[in-house]
Amino acid sequence: MNDRFARLTLMRLAEPGDAVMGRLVAAHGPEGALAQIRAGRLDAGFARWFAGTRRRGAAGTAGDETALDDDAAVKLDRILASWTARLETADPDRDLADGERIGARLIVPGDPEWPTQLDDLGDSRPHALWLHGEANLRFSCVRSVAIVGSRAVTPYGTHVATEFGAGLSERGYGVVSGGAYGVDGAAHRGALVCDAPTVAVLACGADVTYPTAHHDLFAAVRTQGLLVSECPMGVRPTRPRFLVRNRLIAALSRGTLVVEAAVRSGALNTAGHATELNRHLAAVPGPVTSETSAGCHRLIRQGAATCVTTPAEMIELVGAVGGDLAPEPRGPVFPRDQLSPETRRVLEAVPTRAGAGPAIIALAAGVDLDTVLSCLGGLAAAGYVERVPRGWRLRPSPPSGPP
Questions:
Q1: Which CATH architecture has domain 335-394?
Q2: In terms of Cα–Cα distance, which of 398, 127, 164, 123 is closest to 258?
Q3: Which CATH architecture has domain 116-318?
Q4: Are 369 and 358 in contact (CB under 8 A)?
Q5: Name one Pfam family in it (predicted).
Q6: 3-class secondary-structure state, position 106
């Protein structure tokens, strides 16, 4: 059995993100790990490592070391028994055939398309990934941002997620999300407006459409991006798989943006993974009265996330230092802003209704008479002031902008 077939089998034996299986594979390789599981006996050194992790996790609790080692042995035996029980249903040939049937492809670590940033997950790195779509996963994630948030989204959240998805895609950044209702779906739809790829990371098999109402959305994602899954074919989503899936969303992207998340939102789980992986984390503020934005506000208040309000600000956060700076927000520029300081002083000294002579205007403006005469001519030509029998006054309708 080669490496790929061994990894396909391991995907059937352990749940995604199983760090114990991940450590076994890291220590002995996929084929070596599978051979030990088939034999029903794990390497003694691996068993000692497992006991050591249990001991460190239980530091400070009562009980002697021998009892703790016995407890670890029982726990490891149960894990091995669960893996062994699933061997009967593992069929890598069938999985490959099912993948080919729907047009999906399998990638494993070391393949040209494998994103090396997934190595940051350590022992919880996926054994392999099923990809369904036209884009290249590695290239799609080189410059990418994860957008996550509430499923029970408000019109505000839908608008913001769509705008960020489109704005990032327009600037050449891929958008990574989970394909769920709410913020996820809005982010994917926004990204599809432009040419950059969008990646939907699933909590089920690549041949399972969940949610079913996103059938058309997933079809569009496949043409411009990718559906990604670490689950075997036919696997249905569960709550734990959604939470475990979130680590991939955080790991694949340069940074994670949280849009509209309540204090118990699953999006905050993705935010936690981003922080653990040393990825950039940002959040979009919402109305202070909105419970659906309370999680975002808490992240910002605690200093865990950077407050961003535009796609350009998000790119500044995750982009090249000094090369992707967002423009500073500025108010509108009015014609009066283009006047010289002296001319503005003269204009401010011109009365609104009753006219005033140049000498009075000069006194009020604090400039000499020649300057007033020169400025009044230019202001009259520009339509700011007009001549009246008693001197000069402001025109009733200035060119534009506030007075």
A1: Orthogonal Bundle (1.10)
A2: 164
A3: 3-Layer(aba) Sandwich (3.40)
A4: yes
A5: DNA_processg_A
A6: strand
